Design the sequence.
């Protein structure tokens, strides 16, 4: 039978190892150094606060009521929006609440396909179909650059499908989404922008601004390019008829307790971003763009080039078919203490044996590395 010493040993070994690795997983980050221990590890992690601030079903919540209401107000002010809910415990939970809370009409949606980088929650294998029962249709992709959306082809698909709502956002996310163009053609449609991967870049004003371009809702994770605690958020631009439905889907529909210790850490992350790390998003994008150029210059097959850049986000995607494929390359890098994930590319026939790897620079940048340092480690490991 395992002992406390065994558990302690494994935890310490993992901490030591991961602190010694170069983590390039595009969906992960660490918190700002001034946020982690002080604002995350506290008594709130033991408590419940069902419901909304000042409308709880439990007593003993006066301090979390104060922090949670201020956290919501902070994000509402930052994004100049009507509604912010910080209770989702993940981006997937945020998506689930919105997908199931939006009006039900003909039961169809249009989103990015998995091969073009779409997230599983937006597709028939995931939440929007299996839980919310939507029939999923996908945007058309550019024939020359399948990492981008073909706007004209997608407009035709949306007209034909007449979806209940439209979902933007990706997991393999290199380019801005055509929110403005689709909004112009479909002023009456509900548009959701899943900003899970790019939320920190949007927060820092360094990427496209979905609300300005016509999105009605933003869902996001709070722990990728936004370096906060693991969790999710739902933002709504203006008061809309489905607000109460989305709100009640969050609670009591999905959530009971919402992991209260996240809330002070989330608010502290936003404040730290505003005051001490204002250039973080800019640094992340610059590092990803420089890394993509350096990798291409060294002969690697960097994906997504649009005639100007390979990436506009924190991600760099490589086709490593000639090096054995995504899985062997990711395994090789891990043996050299570099962590990435294998990733299927638009032309792959199998997600089990993908031809690509996906790189995210956001954690390395937060830890003080630049593109040149990341390149040196990657290039050395790949050529070893």
Sequence:
């Amino acid at each position: 039978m395992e002992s406390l010493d065994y558990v302690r040993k494994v935890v310490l070994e993992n901490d030591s190892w991961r602190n010694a690795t170069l983590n390039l997983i595009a969906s992960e980050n660490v918190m700002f150094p001034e946020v982690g221990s002080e604002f995350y590890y506290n008594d709130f992690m033991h408590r419940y606060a069902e419901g909304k601030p000042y409308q709880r079903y439990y007593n003993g919540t006066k301090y979390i009521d104060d922090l949670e209401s201020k956290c919501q107000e902070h994000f509402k002010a930052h994004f100049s929006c009507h509604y912010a809910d910080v209770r989702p415990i993940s981006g997937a939970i945020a998506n689930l609440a919105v997908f199931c809370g939006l009006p039900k009409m003909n039961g169809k949606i249009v989103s990015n396909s998995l091969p073009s980088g779409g997230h599983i929650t937006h597709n028939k294998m995931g939440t929007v179909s299996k839980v919310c029962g939507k029939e999923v249709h996908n945007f058309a992709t550019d024939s020359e650059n399948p990492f981008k959306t073909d706007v004209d082809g997608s407009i035709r698909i949306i007209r034909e499908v007449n979806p209940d709502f439209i979902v933007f956002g990706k997991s393999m996310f290199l380019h801005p989404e055509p929110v403005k163009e689709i909004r112009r053609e479909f002023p009456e449609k509900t548009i959701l922008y899943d900003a899970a991967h790019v939320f920190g870049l949007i927060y820092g004003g360094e990427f496209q601004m979905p609300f300005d371009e016509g999105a009605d809702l933003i869902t996001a994770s709070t722990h990728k390019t936004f370096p906060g605690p693991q969790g999710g958020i739902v933002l709504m631009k203006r008061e809309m008829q489905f607000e109460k439905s989305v709100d009640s889907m969050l609670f009591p529909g999905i959530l009971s307790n919402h992991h209260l210790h996240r809330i002070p850490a989330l608010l502290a992350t936003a404040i730290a971003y505003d005051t001490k790390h204002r250039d973080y998003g800019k640094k992340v994008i610059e590092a990803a763009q420089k890394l993509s150029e350096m990798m291409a210059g060294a002969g690697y097959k960097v994906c997504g080039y649009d005639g100007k850049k390979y990436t506009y986000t924190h991600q760099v995607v490589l086709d490593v078919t000639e090096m054995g494929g995504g899985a062997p390359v990711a395994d090789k890098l891990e043996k050299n203490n570099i962590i990435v994930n294998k990733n299927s590319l638009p032309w792959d026939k199998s997600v089990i044996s993908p031809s690509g790897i996906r790189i995210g620079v956001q954690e390395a940048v937060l830890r003080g590395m630049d593109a040149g340092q990341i390149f040196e480690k990657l290039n050395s490991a790949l050529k070893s």
In short: Residues 124 and 136 are 6 Å apart (CA to CA).
